[in-house]
């Protein structure tokens, strides 16, 4: 049975804010009403220790816990007759509701220059449902309990070193946290080419304000147990082939005041994967490894070589992200798929501290090489592959707390997508509308 918890979470958050605003107190409890900030009070509940705020400690400087909840609903309206799964059997369903993410963890700064980060995916939540044609039923897939991040950082002056399970941050949208992205889903090609969190070693410049920034890393491209279900918890590193790692490199340059926006930066990302998934036989082995239902052990990039050029800028309440990217020798696609190219343009404007509008145009092209993000086509009979895809997204975001906008927000978006060409079996890619609403918190 599905758990319809989105309204409950929203009421709890708003109720907590109203309660906090009405209850005067001092110390570690609610502050006096005249000086009260619901945003600060709620955020401080997750900052368990701070040596500057609480008392000096030569060993531990900060200890924070984290909780990220993302719940969403979507509705698809594909073009054409019979394009909804189960429709011919009288059991068609156009909507989905799911826990998109549910993560909890902690981070600790200690000995002045060290930091440990630990985040877990919490299992047992209702994820996407998929149609089973044999039984004419919709089967629930639950989120799986698994390790998402566990890494140690050391800030050695101008250079920061990190080792452990880390998110390799390439492409502009993937570099942005899921709690801070402006659209409910990242662009299609970003989702296709990006890696998952991986065990690796990374070095980067410490100051994000440096005129010239850089980062480099080497990563395993697979981890997890060899079983399924709860045993496949992705805790231990695992090799899937003889050449099993990928490398990433990033250069960035501060272009503030050099172009038409006051604050801006240019990024160049490159990744090379040494895994040699090539012919169709190997791709079938890849599909067996990864499967569907989030039991993947392959965590690497979606192509042998990935290149992305991103420019991000802002001035006042206006911001803009533009990105061009390419994947050469795509991995895990049907025979004949080789290279894929794409572009994203995403302007946004904050009308008030609480309300923001966003527009995104995206395009991806490559013969049999464009892989649709699963949530776009979950309830559709269209193919998950196409030669070219274009989509336009219109969205609005409501930020509940002004002092920390991404701590709690409601997102709504409408997107129209259109595919050209067919896949290897002559099936056309998704074309139609999708409507989405989500509630997201990040404490």
UniProtKB/TrEMBL annotation:
Coiled coil: none annotated. This is Porin. Transmembrane segments: none annotated. Pfam families: Porin_O_P. Keywords: Signal. InterPro entries: Porin_dom_sf, Porin_O/P. Residues 1-22 form the signal peptide.
């Amino acid at each position: 049975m599905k758990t319809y918890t989105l309204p409950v979470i929203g009421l709890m958050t708003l109720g907590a804010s109203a309660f906090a605003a009405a209850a005067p107190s001092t110390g570690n409890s609610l502050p006096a009403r005249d000086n009260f900030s619901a945003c600060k009070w709620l955020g401080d509940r997750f900052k368990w220790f701070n040596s500057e705020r609480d008392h000096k400690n030569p060993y531990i400087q900060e200890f924070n816990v984290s909780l990220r909840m993302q719940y969403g609903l979507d509705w698809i309206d594909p073009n054409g007759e019979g394009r909804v799964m189960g429709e011919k059997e009288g059991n068609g369903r156009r909507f989905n509701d799911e826990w998109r993410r549910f993560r909890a963890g902690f981070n600790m700064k200690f000995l002045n220059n060290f930091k440990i980060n630990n985040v877990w995916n919490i299992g047992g939540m209702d994820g996407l449902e998929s149609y089973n044609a044999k039984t004419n039923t919709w089967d629930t897939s639950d989120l799986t309990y698994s390790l998402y991040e566990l890494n140690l950082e050391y800030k050695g002056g101008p250079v920061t070193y990190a080792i452990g399970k880390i998110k390799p941050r390439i492409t502009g949208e993937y570099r942005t946290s899921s709690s801070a992205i402006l659209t409910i889903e990242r662009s299609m090609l970003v989702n296709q080419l990006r890696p998952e969190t991986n065990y690796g070693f990374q070095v980067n410049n410490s100051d994000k304000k440096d005129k010239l920034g850089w980062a480099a890393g080497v990563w395993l491209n697979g981890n997890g147990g060899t079983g399924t279900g709860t045993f496949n918890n992705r805790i231990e590193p695992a090799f899937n082939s003889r050449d099993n790692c990928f490398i990433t490199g990033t250069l960035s340059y501060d272009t503030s005041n050099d172009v038409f926006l006051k604050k801006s930066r240019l990024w160049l990302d490159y990744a090379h994967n040494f895994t040699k998934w090539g012919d169709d036989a190997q791709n079938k082995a890849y599909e067996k490894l990864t499967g569907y239902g989030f039991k993947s052990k392959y965590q690497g990039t979606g192509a042998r070589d990935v290149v992305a050029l991103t420019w991000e800028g802002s001035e006042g309440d206006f911001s803009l992200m533009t990105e061009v990217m390419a994947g050469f020798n795509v991995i895990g696609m049907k025979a004949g798929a080789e290279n894929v190219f794409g572009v994203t343009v995403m302007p946004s404007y904050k009308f008030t501290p609480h309300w923001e509008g966003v527009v995104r145009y995206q395009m991806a092209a490559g013969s049999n090489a464009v892989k649709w993000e699963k949530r776009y086509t979950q309830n559709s009979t269209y193919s998950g592959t196409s030669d070219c895809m274009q989509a336009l997204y219109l969205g609005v975001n409501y930020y509940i707390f002004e002092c920390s906008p991404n701590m709690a927000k409601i997102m709504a978006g409408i997107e129209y997508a259109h595919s050209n060409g067919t896949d290897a079996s002559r099936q056309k890619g998704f074309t139609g509308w999708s409507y989405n609403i989500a509630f997201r918190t990040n404490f």
